Amino acid sequence: MDCIKHVGLTIICVLLFSTNAIAHGGTQMESTYLYERKNYQTKTIALQPQTFKIGGLFGGFYEDISIFPVSQDNAVGSNDMGNAITIISFPKSKIDYDKYFRNADDIVGGGKYLPPISQDLIGFGQVRVFHLFDFKKKLHREYSIVSSVSQYIEKIAIADASRRRFLFEIESQKADPKGPWDVNYSLQLIELNGDKNTLIKEIPKVRSSWTTTSDRVFLWAFDDKKLRVLDMNLEPAHHPLEDAVKQYKDKIDFSRIFMHPHHPFALLTGGEKGATIIGWSKSRNSEPHLFISDASNFSFSPDGKWAVFTDYLNSNTNQTYLMPVSEKYPHYLGTPILLSNMSFNVGRGAWTTNPTTFVGTKNDEFYRWDLENRDYPGKDKMSFHDYIVQEDLKKLTREKRQGLGK
């Protein structure tokens, strides 16, 4: 067990994004961002993390490990601390390590991670195989998804947890490629049953990015600017985002989609002007707006109340920010709060539940931001999330930002 290097639950001054009002209407999307850095603000809350040295059993230490979300409370998982699944928990502001599946060979080295499949199941892909771990039955199975050395697992999503169905994006190298990007892609719906894996359906995939919700698959073709919506059986389907993208396709520029799990909006990233927010609620203005320049890698907390993202300032500086999410905001997203001058990309950052925290890894340290157990005025009357939203809305209203205070 390691000692805490620093416990930061204090309130100090920090630089925060200022907000600019967005005009509604018009024939083109406004060039002003919802949040930008023209005028920095001070004297606001700073969420200092708890910091721990990455340790192991018998005093061993590790660096640059990967982490992923697990169903256990107040914990994240890793497959990079020996040939085992390590559950890393944070009881009473300390850190504990518990090893499972110690006989799991060849699982070290990162992976294509998923959210917890169920209360007892986790899984991840590596190169051409998929590892499934059943904590209740204490069983580890390894499934060969593709066998050819010219094929790789590029991405995985859960299609139907109850039936153990998963979506796999497969990259296939051509025998005589014309260039480094001249490869074939496909989406495969595969069912894992016992020791067998069954291919249910396969469709070709053009050059595009994709994401999923609980019941939809979204494929965005960059070249044609077309959004294709499928159900979890890879059959044609519909979603309101499809109509919104079609309506405003000449005003938006993006390559990736980050869907909120509950609220009717998505963040579109990868365009020349940065991130754009787009909605499809009939009760409010859903015209897309530039959100913030150079923001990407959005990740929502399991309860949907928080989001973190990476802001690429320059080639040497990538910062991590936190935002509250609430339907009380005109655009659902509150003022970004600086978490760290480091970035925690996929596999280096993960959410926990009970309490809601964000955990990041960098070099030989863990950074943990507890978003529930904090000291703040009125903590006996409201949650930390609600307090942040309340104070942020007061500021936005005073400054008459985003249509508030008029």
Describe this structure in words.
This protein has helices at residues 240-247, 384-398, and strands at residues 4-7, 16-19, 35-41, 50-53, 68-69, 75-78, 85-89, 96-100, 112-113, 121-126, 129-134, 139-144, 151-160, 165-173, 183-193, 196-205, 208-212, 217-221, 226-230, 256-259, 265-271, 274-279, 289-292, 295-300, 306-314, 317-324, 337-340, 349-352, 357-362, 365-370. It has 406 residues and is mostly beta strands. Among the domains are: 13-46 and 239-346 and 379-406, no CATH class; 111-206. The strands form eight sheets. The protein has a five-stranded antiparallel β-sheet with strand order 1-4-30-29-28, with no helix packed on it. Strand 24 and strand 25 (306-314) form a beta hairpin. The radius of gyration is 22 Å and the shape is globular. Mean pLDDT is 88; it is low at 1-27 and 39-43.
